[in-house]
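Quick one:
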Amino acid sequence: MSSGAQRQRFFFFIWGLVLFFAVFLGISLGVVCGLSDMGKSIIASGVSVQGIDVGGQTTEQALATLESQLNFNQLEEDLLLRWQDKEWKLSPKDIQARLDLATGINQAMRVGRGQGFFADLYQRYIAKTEGKDIPLHLLINDKKLSSYLEDLAREINREPVNAQLLTNPDDTIQVVGEQPGEKLNLAKAKSKIKEQLLKTDKEILLPVELWQAEVTAGIIHSRGIKRLLSSFATNFSTAKENRAYNIYVAAKAIDGVMLKPGEVFSFNKIVGPRSQEAGYKTAGVIVNNELVEGIGGGVCQVSSTLYNAVLLADLQIVERSNHSRPVAYLPLGRDATVAYDYLDFKFKNSTGSYVLIRAEVDGGRLLIRLFGNQPPGERVSIVTETDAVLPSPVKVTPDKSLPTGGMVVEKEGDSGCRVNTWRTVEINGKEVRRELVGHSTYNPVARIIRKGI
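Output:
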Protein backbone atom coordinates (compact mmCIF):
# COMPACT_ATOMS: atom_id res chain seq x y z
CA MET A 1 0.00 0.00 0.00
CA SER A 2 1.35 3.41 -0.90
CA SER A 3 2.14 5.99 1.72
CA GLY A 4 -0.52 8.34 0.25
CA ALA A 5 -3.31 5.81 0.78
CA GLN A 6 -2.19 5.20 4.32
CA ARG A 7 -2.27 8.92 5.10
CA GLN A 8 -5.80 9.17 3.68
CA ARG A 9 -7.06 6.29 5.83
CA PHE A 10 -5.48 7.83 8.90
CA PHE A 11 -7.12 11.17 8.11
CA PHE A 12 -10.62 9.61 7.90
CA PHE A 13 -10.02 7.69 11.14
CA ILE A 14 -9.11 10.84 13.06
CA TRP A 15 -12.18 12.77 11.81
CA GLY A 16 -14.41 9.81 12.64
CA LEU A 17 -13.19 9.83 16.23
CA VAL A 18 -13.83 13.59 16.47
CA LEU A 19 -17.38 13.20 15.16
CA PHE A 20 -18.07 10.31 17.53
CA PHE A 21 -16.94 12.23 20.57
CA ALA A 22 -18.94 15.29 19.50
CA VAL A 23 -22.13 13.26 19.20
CA PHE A 24 -21.41 11.49 22.45
CA LEU A 25 -20.77 14.78 24.20
CA GLY A 26 -24.04 16.27 22.82
CA ILE A 27 -26.06 13.26 23.89
CA SER A 28 -24.46 13.29 27.28
CA LEU A 29 -25.21 16.96 27.76
CA GLY A 30 -28.82 16.36 26.63
CA VAL A 31 -29.17 13.44 29.01
CA VAL A 32 -27.76 15.53 31.83
CA CYS A 33 -30.08 18.41 31.01
CA GLY A 34 -33.05 16.13 30.62
CA LEU A 35 -32.47 13.89 33.56
CA SER A 36 -31.60 16.64 35.96
CA ASP A 37 -35.26 17.44 36.73
CA MET A 38 -37.23 14.56 35.21
CA GLY A 39 -37.89 13.08 38.60
CA LYS A 40 -39.03 16.35 40.11
CA SER A 41 -42.60 17.81 40.03
CA ILE A 42 -41.45 20.93 38.23
CA ILE A 43 -41.96 22.29 34.74
CA ALA A 44 -39.18 21.52 32.26
CA SER A 45 -36.56 24.22 31.65
CA GLY A 46 -37.30 26.52 28.72
CA VAL A 47 -41.12 26.19 28.96
CA SER A 48 -43.20 29.38 29.06
CA VAL A 49 -46.93 30.13 29.27
CA GLN A 50 -48.27 33.05 27.24
CA GLY A 51 -44.66 34.24 26.85
CA ILE A 52 -43.89 34.12 30.60
CA ASP A 53 -41.07 31.75 31.68
CA VAL A 54 -42.24 29.12 34.15
CA GLY A 55 -39.44 26.56 33.63
CA GLY A 56 -38.21 24.90 36.80
CA GLN A 57 -41.33 25.93 38.77
CA THR A 58 -44.00 23.90 40.51
CA THR A 59 -47.65 24.35 39.51
CA GLU A 60 -48.25 26.62 42.52
CA GLN A 61 -45.20 28.74 41.68
CA ALA A 62 -46.20 28.92 38.00
CA LEU A 63 -49.71 30.06 38.94
CA ALA A 64 -48.31 32.82 41.16
CA THR A 65 -45.92 33.88 38.40
CA LEU A 66 -48.69 34.13 35.81
CA GLU A 67 -51.04 35.99 38.13
CA SER A 68 -48.34 38.54 38.93
CA GLN A 69 -47.02 39.09 35.41
CA LEU A 70 -50.04 38.69 33.11
CA ASN A 71 -51.90 41.83 32.03
CA PHE A 72 -55.51 41.23 33.03
CA ASN A 73 -56.56 44.79 32.22
CA GLN A 74 -57.63 43.70 28.75
CA LEU A 75 -60.33 41.54 30.34
CA GLU A 76 -61.69 44.46 32.33
CA GLU A 77 -62.32 46.90 29.46
CA ASP A 78 -65.73 46.96 27.75
CA LEU A 79 -66.04 45.98 24.10
CA LEU A 80 -67.76 48.51 21.83
CA LEU A 81 -70.00 46.78 19.28
CA ARG A 82 -71.10 48.86 16.29
CA TRP A 83 -73.52 48.54 13.42
CA GLN A 84 -74.43 51.51 11.21
CA ASP A 85 -75.34 54.32 13.63
CA LYS A 86 -75.97 52.04 16.61
CA GLU A 87 -73.58 51.13 19.43
CA TRP A 88 -73.68 48.60 22.26
CA LYS A 89 -71.25 47.96 25.13
CA LEU A 90 -70.35 44.47 26.32
CA SER A 91 -68.55 44.00 29.63
CA PRO A 92 -66.29 40.92 29.81
CA LYS A 93 -67.67 40.35 33.32
CA ASP A 94 -71.17 39.92 31.88
CA ILE A 95 -70.02 36.86 29.97
CA GLN A 96 -67.60 35.69 32.69
CA ALA A 97 -64.53 36.07 30.45
CA ARG A 98 -61.30 34.72 32.00
CA LEU A 99 -57.99 33.13 31.04
CA ASP A 100 -57.69 29.37 31.56
CA LEU A 101 -54.54 29.40 33.73
CA ALA A 102 -55.05 25.90 35.12
CA THR A 103 -55.12 24.26 31.69
CA GLY A 104 -52.11 26.27 30.52
CA ILE A 105 -50.02 25.24 33.54
CA ASN A 106 -51.13 21.63 33.16
CA GLN A 107 -50.01 21.61 29.53
CA ALA A 108 -46.69 23.16 30.53
CA MET A 109 -46.16 20.43 33.13
CA ARG A 110 -46.79 17.73 30.50
CA VAL A 111 -43.88 18.88 28.30
CA GLY A 112 -41.30 16.06 28.47
CA ARG A 113 -43.58 13.71 30.36
CA GLY A 114 -45.72 10.71 29.42
CA GLN A 115 -44.43 10.09 25.87
CA GLY A 116 -41.77 7.50 26.64
CA PHE A 117 -38.18 7.93 27.85
CA PHE A 118 -36.49 9.00 24.63
CA ALA A 119 -39.46 11.11 23.41
CA ASP A 120 -39.62 12.89 26.76
CA LEU A 121 -35.86 13.42 26.69
CA TYR A 122 -36.10 14.90 23.20
CA GLN A 123 -38.93 17.27 24.20
CA ARG A 124 -36.95 18.52 27.18
CA TYR A 125 -33.86 19.02 25.04
CA ILE A 126 -35.84 21.09 22.49
CA ALA A 127 -37.50 23.12 25.28
CA LYS A 128 -34.10 23.76 26.84
CA THR A 129 -32.36 24.75 23.60
CA GLU A 130 -35.17 26.35 21.55
CA GLY A 131 -37.93 27.12 24.06
CA LYS A 132 -41.54 25.94 24.21
CA ASP A 133 -44.44 28.43 24.71
CA ILE A 134 -47.94 27.37 25.77
CA PRO A 135 -50.66 29.83 24.70
CA LEU A 136 -53.51 30.46 27.14
CA HIS A 137 -57.10 29.90 26.11
CA LEU A 138 -59.93 32.30 26.85
CA LEU A 139 -62.91 30.95 28.75
CA ILE A 140 -66.37 32.55 28.65
CA ASN A 141 -69.91 31.65 29.65
CA ASP A 142 -71.15 30.59 26.24
CA LYS A 143 -74.83 30.65 27.24
CA LYS A 144 -74.58 34.23 28.48
CA LEU A 145 -72.82 35.37 25.29
CA SER A 146 -75.37 33.58 23.10
CA SER A 147 -78.23 35.16 25.03
CA TYR A 148 -76.65 38.61 24.70
CA LEU A 149 -76.18 38.22 20.94
CA GLU A 150 -79.72 36.89 20.45
CA ASP A 151 -81.08 40.00 22.17
CA LEU A 152 -78.85 42.09 19.93
CA ALA A 153 -80.12 40.25 16.85
CA ARG A 154 -83.70 41.15 17.70
CA GLU A 155 -82.72 44.81 17.46
CA ILE A 156 -80.70 44.42 14.28
CA ASN A 157 -82.47 41.78 12.22
CA ARG A 158 -84.88 42.96 9.57
CA GLU A 159 -86.79 40.31 7.66
CA PRO A 160 -86.78 40.47 3.86
CA VAL A 161 -89.93 41.35 1.97
CA ASN A 162 -90.91 38.95 -0.79
CA ALA A 163 -91.85 40.21 -4.21
CA GLN A 164 -95.60 40.41 -4.64
CA LEU A 165 -98.10 40.11 -7.43
CA LEU A 166 -100.74 42.79 -6.88
CA THR A 167 -104.13 42.69 -8.55
CA ASN A 168 -105.75 46.07 -9.12
CA PRO A 169 -109.47 46.95 -9.03
CA ASP A 170 -109.40 47.36 -12.82
CA ASP A 171 -108.25 43.70 -13.12
CA THR A 172 -104.71 44.61 -14.17
CA ILE A 173 -101.71 43.10 -12.39
CA GLN A 174 -98.54 44.65 -10.98
CA VAL A 175 -95.30 43.06 -9.73
CA VAL A 176 -93.68 44.76 -6.72
CA GLY A 177 -90.01 43.83 -6.30
CA GLU A 178 -88.49 42.15 -3.27
CA GLN A 179 -86.54 43.93 -0.52
CA PRO A 180 -83.58 42.17 1.16
CA GLY A 181 -83.40 42.08 4.93
CA GLU A 182 -80.47 42.10 7.37
CA LYS A 183 -79.39 39.40 9.77
CA LEU A 184 -76.68 39.25 12.45
CA ASN A 185 -74.36 36.27 11.90
CA LEU A 186 -74.31 34.89 15.45
CA ALA A 187 -71.42 32.46 14.92
CA LYS A 188 -69.15 35.09 13.38
CA ALA A 189 -70.09 37.66 16.02
CA LYS A 190 -69.25 35.22 18.81
CA SER A 191 -65.88 34.40 17.22
CA LYS A 192 -65.03 38.10 16.78
CA ILE A 193 -65.83 38.88 20.41
CA LYS A 194 -63.65 36.04 21.71
CA GLU A 195 -60.78 37.16 19.49
CA GLN A 196 -61.05 40.85 20.41
CA LEU A 197 -61.24 40.36 24.19
CA LEU A 198 -57.45 39.89 24.41
CA LYS A 199 -56.58 42.72 22.04
CA THR A 200 -56.00 46.40 22.78
CA ASP A 201 -58.48 47.48 20.11
CA LYS A 202 -61.89 47.14 21.75
CA GLU A 203 -64.13 48.10 18.83
CA ILE A 204 -65.96 45.48 16.76
CA LEU A 205 -67.97 45.99 13.59
CA LEU A 206 -70.73 43.42 13.90
CA PRO A 207 -71.00 40.89 11.05
CA VAL A 208 -74.47 41.76 9.71
CA GLU A 209 -75.28 40.08 6.41
CA LEU A 210 -77.92 40.56 3.74
CA TRP A 211 -80.95 38.32 4.17
CA GLN A 212 -82.27 37.55 0.71
CA ALA A 213 -85.99 37.23 0.04
CA GLU A 214 -87.28 33.80 -0.91
CA VAL A 215 -89.57 35.14 -3.64
CA THR A 216 -88.00 37.56 -6.10
CA ALA A 217 -89.55 39.58 -8.90
CA GLY A 218 -87.90 37.19 -11.33
CA ILE A 219 -89.68 34.25 -9.72
CA ILE A 220 -93.03 36.08 -9.94
CA HIS A 221 -92.51 36.85 -13.63
CA SER A 222 -91.49 33.25 -14.34
CA ARG A 223 -94.88 32.02 -13.08
CA GLY A 224 -96.48 33.51 -16.18
CA ILE A 225 -99.51 35.23 -14.59
CA LYS A 226 -100.34 37.98 -17.08
CA ARG A 227 -104.07 38.70 -17.11
CA LEU A 228 -107.51 38.15 -15.64
CA LEU A 229 -108.92 34.77 -16.62
CA SER A 230 -112.38 35.14 -15.12
CA SER A 231 -114.44 36.79 -12.41
CA PHE A 232 -117.75 35.87 -10.81
CA ALA A 233 -119.79 37.43 -8.02
CA THR A 234 -122.78 36.43 -5.88
CA ASN A 235 -124.81 38.43 -3.36
CA PHE A 236 -125.88 37.61 0.18
CA SER A 237 -127.81 39.23 2.99
CA THR A 238 -125.73 41.04 5.60
CA ALA A 239 -128.72 40.87 7.95
CA LYS A 240 -127.88 37.21 8.55
CA GLU A 241 -124.73 38.13 10.45
CA ASN A 242 -123.44 34.64 11.22
CA ARG A 243 -123.83 33.47 7.64
CA ALA A 244 -122.17 36.64 6.32
CA TYR A 245 -119.28 36.16 8.75
CA ASN A 246 -118.77 32.54 7.64
CA ILE A 247 -118.62 33.67 4.01
CA TYR A 248 -115.94 36.20 4.93
CA VAL A 249 -113.84 33.60 6.82
CA ALA A 250 -113.95 31.05 3.97
CA ALA A 251 -113.23 33.70 1.32
CA LYS A 252 -110.21 34.87 3.29
CA ALA A 253 -108.91 31.29 3.41
CA ILE A 254 -108.77 30.91 -0.38
CA ASP A 255 -107.66 34.47 -1.16
CA GLY A 256 -104.10 34.55 -2.49
CA VAL A 257 -103.82 30.82 -3.17
CA MET A 258 -101.53 30.19 -6.15
CA LEU A 259 -101.66 26.93 -8.10
CA LYS A 260 -98.82 25.45 -10.12
CA PRO A 261 -99.52 24.09 -13.60
CA GLY A 262 -101.18 20.70 -13.15
CA GLU A 263 -101.87 21.23 -9.43
CA VAL A 264 -105.28 20.23 -8.05
CA PHE A 265 -107.10 22.64 -5.73
CA SER A 266 -109.10 21.07 -2.87
CA PHE A 267 -111.58 23.38 -1.17
CA ASN A 268 -111.69 21.28 2.00
CA LYS A 269 -107.91 21.09 2.24
CA ILE A 270 -107.45 24.85 1.87
CA VAL A 271 -110.41 26.02 3.97
CA GLY A 272 -110.13 23.29 6.58
CA PRO A 273 -112.73 22.04 9.06
CA ARG A 274 -115.76 24.24 9.60
CA SER A 275 -115.76 24.36 13.38
CA GLN A 276 -116.06 26.84 16.20
CA GLU A 277 -112.34 26.40 16.88
CA ALA A 278 -111.66 27.54 13.30
CA GLY A 279 -113.81 30.63 13.82
CA TYR A 280 -117.07 29.57 12.16
CA LYS A 281 -120.52 30.34 13.53
CA THR A 282 -123.96 28.70 13.42
CA ALA A 283 -126.08 29.49 10.35
CA GLY A 284 -128.47 27.79 7.95
CA VAL A 285 -127.19 24.71 6.08
CA ILE A 286 -128.92 22.16 3.84
CA VAL A 287 -128.88 18.67 5.37
CA ASN A 288 -130.95 15.77 4.01
CA ASN A 289 -132.99 18.10 1.84
CA GLU A 290 -133.87 20.31 4.81
CA LEU A 291 -132.58 23.76 5.81
CA VAL A 292 -131.29 23.49 9.38
CA GLU A 293 -128.91 25.34 11.67
CA GLY A 294 -125.32 24.15 11.57
CA ILE A 295 -121.70 25.29 12.06
CA GLY A 296 -120.31 26.97 8.95
CA GLY A 297 -123.56 27.80 7.14
CA GLY A 298 -122.75 30.00 4.12
CA VAL A 299 -119.44 28.38 3.20
CA CYS A 300 -121.10 26.65 0.25
CA GLN A 301 -121.73 30.07 -1.31
CA VAL A 302 -117.96 30.55 -1.45
CA SER A 303 -117.35 27.13 -3.06
CA SER A 304 -120.23 27.73 -5.51
CA THR A 305 -118.96 31.20 -6.48
CA LEU A 306 -115.50 29.74 -7.00
CA TYR A 307 -117.00 26.94 -9.12
CA ASN A 308 -118.46 29.49 -11.52
CA ALA A 309 -115.20 31.41 -11.74
CA VAL A 310 -113.37 28.15 -12.48
CA LEU A 311 -115.88 27.24 -15.22
CA LEU A 312 -115.44 30.65 -16.86
CA ALA A 313 -111.62 30.35 -16.65
CA ASP A 314 -111.86 27.11 -18.66
CA LEU A 315 -110.17 25.04 -15.95
CA GLN A 316 -110.73 21.32 -15.49
CA ILE A 317 -113.33 20.26 -12.90
CA VAL A 318 -112.13 17.28 -10.85
CA GLU A 319 -114.87 16.89 -8.23
CA ARG A 320 -118.14 18.73 -7.69
CA SER A 321 -121.54 17.99 -6.11
CA ASN A 322 -124.73 20.01 -6.25
CA HIS A 323 -127.00 20.77 -3.28
CA SER A 324 -129.97 18.47 -2.71
CA ARG A 325 -132.30 21.44 -3.28
CA PRO A 326 -131.91 24.73 -5.21
CA VAL A 327 -130.08 27.67 -3.66
CA ALA A 328 -131.26 31.25 -3.88
CA TYR A 329 -127.98 32.88 -4.91
CA LEU A 330 -127.33 30.88 -8.14
CA PRO A 331 -129.27 29.36 -11.07
CA LEU A 332 -129.85 25.61 -11.13
CA GLY A 333 -126.76 23.62 -12.15
CA ARG A 334 -124.33 26.35 -11.12
CA ASP A 335 -123.81 25.49 -7.41
CA ALA A 336 -121.12 23.38 -5.70
CA THR A 337 -121.80 22.11 -2.20
CA VAL A 338 -119.08 21.07 0.23
CA ALA A 339 -119.01 19.23 3.56
CA TYR A 340 -115.74 18.64 5.33
CA ASP A 341 -114.36 15.10 5.01
CA TYR A 342 -116.89 13.73 2.52
CA LEU A 343 -118.01 16.35 -0.05
CA ASP A 344 -115.28 18.40 -1.71
CA PHE A 345 -114.92 20.78 -4.62
CA LYS A 346 -111.76 20.19 -6.62
CA PHE A 347 -110.41 21.59 -9.85
CA LYS A 348 -107.12 21.32 -11.71
CA ASN A 349 -104.94 24.08 -13.08
CA SER A 350 -105.02 22.75 -16.60
CA THR A 351 -103.03 25.70 -18.01
CA GLY A 352 -99.30 25.99 -18.61
CA SER A 353 -98.91 28.84 -16.12
CA TYR A 354 -99.65 29.50 -12.48
CA VAL A 355 -103.21 30.49 -11.47
CA LEU A 356 -103.88 33.01 -8.69
CA ILE A 357 -107.16 33.09 -6.74
CA ARG A 358 -108.38 36.41 -5.36
CA ALA A 359 -111.51 36.46 -3.19
CA GLU A 360 -112.98 39.55 -1.55
CA VAL A 361 -116.12 40.45 0.35
CA ASP A 362 -117.56 43.95 0.05
CA GLY A 363 -120.79 44.48 1.93
CA GLY A 364 -123.17 41.81 0.74
CA ARG A 365 -121.18 40.92 -2.38
CA LEU A 366 -118.65 38.08 -2.79
CA LEU A 367 -116.30 38.49 -5.75
CA ILE A 368 -113.84 35.83 -6.91
CA ARG A 369 -111.28 36.53 -9.63
CA LEU A 370 -108.82 34.11 -11.25
CA PHE A 371 -105.59 35.33 -12.88
CA GLY A 372 -103.32 33.37 -15.21
CA ASN A 373 -102.33 33.22 -18.86
CA GLN A 374 -104.98 31.76 -21.14
CA PRO A 375 -105.22 33.04 -24.75
CA PRO A 376 -106.52 36.65 -24.60
CA GLY A 377 -109.06 36.04 -27.38
CA GLU A 378 -110.76 33.22 -25.47
CA ARG A 379 -114.39 33.62 -24.40
CA VAL A 380 -116.19 31.10 -22.19
CA SER A 381 -119.94 30.88 -21.66
CA ILE A 382 -122.01 28.59 -19.40
CA VAL A 383 -125.42 27.24 -20.38
CA THR A 384 -127.75 25.05 -18.29
CA GLU A 385 -130.71 22.98 -19.48
CA THR A 386 -133.35 21.02 -17.61
CA ASP A 387 -133.09 17.37 -18.51
CA ALA A 388 -136.09 16.06 -16.53
CA VAL A 389 -138.71 17.19 -14.03
CA LEU A 390 -139.18 15.19 -10.86
CA PRO A 391 -142.81 15.49 -9.65
CA SER A 392 -143.56 16.63 -6.15
CA PRO A 393 -145.17 14.05 -3.88
CA VAL A 394 -148.68 14.94 -2.68
CA LYS A 395 -150.03 13.08 0.28
CA VAL A 396 -153.04 13.67 2.51
CA THR A 397 -153.03 12.24 6.03
CA PRO A 398 -155.32 12.83 9.02
CA ASP A 399 -154.05 15.04 11.82
CA LYS A 400 -154.46 12.78 14.84
CA SER A 401 -154.09 15.70 17.22
CA LEU A 402 -157.44 17.12 16.08
CA PRO A 403 -161.05 15.79 16.33
CA THR A 404 -161.88 13.09 13.79
CA GLY A 405 -162.93 14.60 10.49
CA GLY A 406 -162.17 18.13 11.66
CA MET A 407 -158.76 18.82 9.97
CA VAL A 408 -156.19 17.04 7.76
CA VAL A 409 -152.54 17.70 6.88
CA GLU A 410 -151.84 17.98 3.15
CA LYS A 411 -148.17 17.57 2.05
CA GLU A 412 -147.39 19.40 -1.16
CA GLY A 413 -144.16 20.84 -2.56
CA ASP A 414 -142.01 22.08 -5.42
CA SER A 415 -141.00 19.73 -8.19
CA GLY A 416 -137.46 18.45 -8.46
CA CYS A 417 -135.40 18.32 -11.63
CA ARG A 418 -132.25 17.12 -13.36
CA VAL A 419 -130.05 19.80 -14.93
CA ASN A 420 -127.11 19.55 -17.33
CA THR A 421 -124.42 22.23 -17.38
CA TRP A 422 -122.52 22.97 -20.60
CA ARG A 423 -119.41 25.01 -21.24
CA THR A 424 -118.78 26.63 -24.61
CA VAL A 425 -115.33 27.97 -25.52
CA GLU A 426 -114.80 30.46 -28.34
CA ILE A 427 -111.52 31.89 -29.59
CA ASN A 428 -111.75 35.11 -31.57
CA GLY A 429 -115.49 34.54 -32.03
CA LYS A 430 -115.18 30.97 -33.30
CA GLU A 431 -116.47 28.06 -31.22
CA VAL A 432 -113.69 25.56 -30.58
CA ARG A 433 -115.23 23.38 -27.88
CA ARG A 434 -118.56 22.57 -26.27
CA GLU A 435 -118.51 20.18 -23.32
CA LEU A 436 -120.83 18.81 -20.68
CA VAL A 437 -119.23 19.77 -17.36
CA GLY A 438 -121.84 18.72 -14.81
CA HIS A 439 -125.05 16.89 -13.96
CA SER A 440 -127.21 18.17 -11.10
CA THR A 441 -130.21 16.50 -9.48
CA TYR A 442 -132.45 18.53 -7.17
CA ASN A 443 -134.97 16.68 -5.03
CA PRO A 444 -138.60 17.76 -4.70
CA VAL A 445 -139.25 19.98 -1.69
CA ALA A 446 -142.31 19.18 0.42
CA ARG A 447 -144.39 21.73 2.30
CA ILE A 448 -146.91 21.09 5.08
CA ILE A 449 -150.21 22.97 4.92
CA ARG A 450 -153.16 22.55 7.31
CA LYS A 451 -156.57 22.66 5.62
CA GLY A 452 -160.05 22.39 6.95
CA ILE A 453 -162.64 19.91 5.63
